[in-house]
Amino acid sequence: MQLPPVVTPRAYERLSEIGAAGDGMALRVAVEGGGCSGFQYEIKLDEPARDDLVLEADGEKVVVDPVSLPFLAGATIDFSDELIGARFTIENPNASSSCGCGTSFSM
Question: Which residue has the higher pLDDT, 48 or 37?
Answer without folding.
Answer: 48
